[in-house]
Amino acid sequence: MTNVQQDGKVALITGASGAIGAAVARLLASRGMRIVANYRSSRDKADDLVASIRSAGGQAMAAQADVRDRSAVVGMLEQARAAMGEVEVLVHSALMPYAIKSFEEMSVDELSGKVEQEIRAASVVTKAVVPGMTKRGYGRIVYLGTMESALPLEGMIALGTSKAALSSFTRFVAQELGPRGITVNVVAPGPVGGHLHNVALEHDQEHKQRLTAQTALGRFASPDDVARAVAFYAGDDSEFITGTTAPVNGGMAVA
User: What Pfam families does the record point to (predicted)?
Assistant: First the structure.
């Protein structure tokens, strides 16, 4: 990928206090974007992220909002717009809570609730940024998906099903927004070292070794691996790519 400067574009990163969101924020900031680092409750982590970006010469601000709450997101966008200008890049990496259970163990409400919350959050944040992108005739939207949507892993039916719905949602939104100069894509990681929903997995050495053996590159992804794929979609090198889902799994599908 070309490491091009992005001319001060404003990028909103939801879930920026998480490992992947923070890696994305730092990388985009290093490429010249001005970062709005969204968090729901982890203010200290968001503040540390903003401080690290600023100390490296970048521009960043923290912005609190539950991305499932429309009024909170609208308020966050007003705050970001006043401080930095219109959001031109959205990276939606906020992780909605979900149960890690088999289908038999999982209640209907746990499964359907995860799907509903996933699409609700994506819809809320997308609707908030699209008007500004439309005015400019330019926008980049990147959602974080998961490999489990296509390659099921034990206990991940809620996550995999909800992210599969997100990939379908992406294709419809991409088709509708394309004529406005807005691209919409998904980055779908495999297991990511240090990521919230993989912490338990990392302590199960037998399961971890089994998954690693199924990966052509012989390791889990790092947050930086995922961030580089996101940065491609968030920049101008991807201007003729939309409605796609990019697997970032080290070749797990082909190993």
Answer: adh_short_C2 (PF13561)
